[in-house]
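Extended Data, panel c. Modelled sequence:
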Amino acid sequence: MDMPIRDTTFVQPGAPVEPEIAAPAVAGRFNLGLAVRYNVANLGAQVVYALFNFGMPLYLDTYRLNPSLIGLLANERSFVASFVQPLVGRLSDRTRSPLGRRRPFFLAGIPLMALALVALALHPPFWIMLAIMSVAAFFLSVAWDPYMAFMADLFPPEHRGRVGGLLGIGSGLGTVIFLLLAFNLWEHAEFAVFMICIAVMVAAWAFTFFTVKEPPLPPAEAIASRAARSRPNPVAYVRDVARYPEVLKYMLAVNFYWLGLGGVTPFITLFGVKALGATEQEAFLLPLIATLLNALFAVPAGYLADRFSKKAVMTTGLLIIGVVAVIGSQSQTLWQAMIALGAVGVGNATLAQINPLLADLVPRKRTAEFMGLVSAVFSFAQPLGSVAAGAVVSLATIWVGGNDAYRWAFIFAGCTLLLSAALLQTVKPAQAVLD
């Protein structure tokens, strides 16, 4: 049984004494039940992310948009979020409520996301659709970054690789749920797909909200939170963040992963339809095979990450995806493309370690703040990657024609992911500053 932590600092007579606070989870036996309950919310989020990544390109194509604009809008992250997410994370770290410091943000982000999806499902006029799509992904981010920080509150570093593996399974299941819905319903019952996605998202986040309680804060974090209420100073804040060089190097490395992923993901179904001549229904098989193999290999990758190194596992995955994306871009049939996407899914299973490794690099008392800060960078990089890949597709149209131009989105992604693997080697987790 864990003993409560006592603050042993000298206290003057008559001064208020901090109450004893139970310590958070420490390394021991892995709590699989807790990890599964925690992961259910992730499944709900991934259903919506899959809708954005694989359904929205076809949805937006009905508005006859340029490929660059489709790539920008059909994205699970938004530019709006990149400006606000650090503030959301910092606010979460400093929130004190009966519900804790993470779960209150579930109650804000999830209902707003549900309302945005209902509005989009009605196919509003172009300018209304554009306004909603510009901010919709941010609503889920309000809940997502505190949720990712919640992992550090619940699990010690020695267990986070396996938690990441379960997150990979949840991501896979959520994406498969959407793809099966889209495969069977998208062409004739698109509205129903939106409604089912909303129902799954709300139910999944409600389950985690009610079944996973937040552990009490250690005394050091409780005291620090009261001391950190000074007026914001941007210059001082930048200097403070610079004290964590491993986080900055990690941010740069993973930034190129999100550039590549953002570049190719919105174009997978369009690649199937336009370059391979598949039907819209058949095109959903491409992300489906990638997702199934992603989910299948996520837990083994998590065990390898805990056993050896999260960084080594991620590097292997990035190399696999980068090489296969370039080669797979030349697929001539749907089956060839499915084989390539399957290999990409195996490699991408290792990238479920992105947030677990980030949690290892930052002080626990500032986890949500850094999650928000890093997510802000990724929220800028992923749409930027989509725009860049869309521009590459548009330029390639001049030389190879409109249909084969979509192959260049995969070449763009492969190059950026190989660069991400190279930059990741500069990160030294053992040297991370954790105070």
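Residues 367-400 form the longest helix (34 residues). This feature is highlighted in the accompanying rendering.
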